[in-house]
Amino acid sequence: MQRHCEWISPHYDPRMSIEKSQVAFAESSLVMPGGVSSPVRAFQGVGGTPVFVADGEGCRVTDVDGNRYIDYVMSYGPLIAGHANDRVMAAICKQAGHGTSFGMPTMAETTLCDTIASALPSVDMVRLVNSGTEAAMSAIRLARAATGRNKIVKCAGCYHGHVDGLLVEAGSGALTLGTPSSPGVPKSVAANTLTVPYNDLDAAAKVFELHGDDIACFAVEPIAGNMGLVPPAPGYLAGLRELCDKHGAMLLFDEVMTGFRVAWGGAQVRYNIRPDLSCFGKVIGGGLPLAAYAGPKHIMEQVSPAGPMYQAGTLSGNPLATAAGITTLEILQEPGAYDTLETRSAQLQNGLETAAKDAGVPVCVNRVGSMVGLYLVDAEGDTVENFADATATSADRFATFFHAMREAGVLLAPSRFEALFVSLAHDEEAIEQTVAASEIAFAAVKRTDI
Ligand code: PLP
User: Fold this and answer.
1) pLDDT grade, residue 40 (50/70/90)?
2) What are the CA-CA distances from residue 261 to residues 71, 190, 237, 412, 421 (Å)?
3) Would you say residue 173 has pLDDT above 60?
4) Atom of ligand 1 nearest to the CA of 279
């Protein structure tokens, strides 16, 4: 193990300066709530200072103090081709020279929607929007419009954006009527959201038994990526499909995170389940703001102006975003792209597992394709299969691991409920350096355990 420590030294500086990030954070905090544009960018420790980024290249970012890190945040998933990928940049720059927004259709929108539809047996038509939140919000409106029903079901610990009706999580019971998880969400709105535990078919069956006549859709992340990374239990997604069919409800797969990441198409292709409606985002925008909701023609034709369900957007189908998205999908379509992601991610998973074992730190490392969830569990052999398991892991031990990784030159998202994202730019050397850093970080966790 020791052999790696010297080798990692170019990235390892325990006296890492973050002075400029601290000044930047003090300034941003005066004009931005919490100093950030999205809450998950803020974190506790090291003065509670977020990393202020100056530059990204491949799998690495450099902060404003000049510290260089291997990045597993990757903008929370979109950057599957890496930071500042040459081809994606060239496509954006080329388009920028011809205009950045028109409020009129472009052929690139058709190209992108056609690429998405041809990858997915469940999709004939696609509506482009600007964010995953917008996609989920609109897909739920469509499910309600198409079924004439009011209620939706979601899983505890699954995130579908910050829409009022989706900011609802379960209490500790198997199923509860919606309780808002943020002030500002009216109880009347939350009351239409029913929450069940992820990976629990019995709870899903029960909610349909009780409210089946008024359930418009069951919305689920087919692979849960907002409680770390939790794969669906065998038969879970097929069971949801059956329940939805039985009760005349729509199955909505939120593939904002998994779409075109875990397979060409997404989780629905990987697990061979056909949802009624799907949401996409992140990867299909190649790092620019773009998302989509999609489904078969007879449902999607209910969307305005083809049908009565209203939904619109000034910047929807933005030409810079479609250029980045089309190019990213072209890169992913090249032979071997998903194999490379799989191999590198497996290498990361195995390396983390071995490093933890050597340090005597119990972990559960879940992985599907290039999404990895690392949990510091209480005991060897503990698994994480739902939100309750994920929340039972120690936040303090994760914080120790996170900060030690950062000091060793590896950036993770500052939350144990976020996945690590591997990109095509994470080469073998980067993975080896990450594993070497984790040896230091697991040792730090072990020290705090004693
Ligand atoms: N759905 C899922 C599964 C997500 O992971 C996210 C964001 O992380 C969203 C929806 C919301 O997307 P956005 O942040 O683009 O609004």
Assistant:
1) confident
2) 17, 31, 18, 18, 9
3) no
4) 1
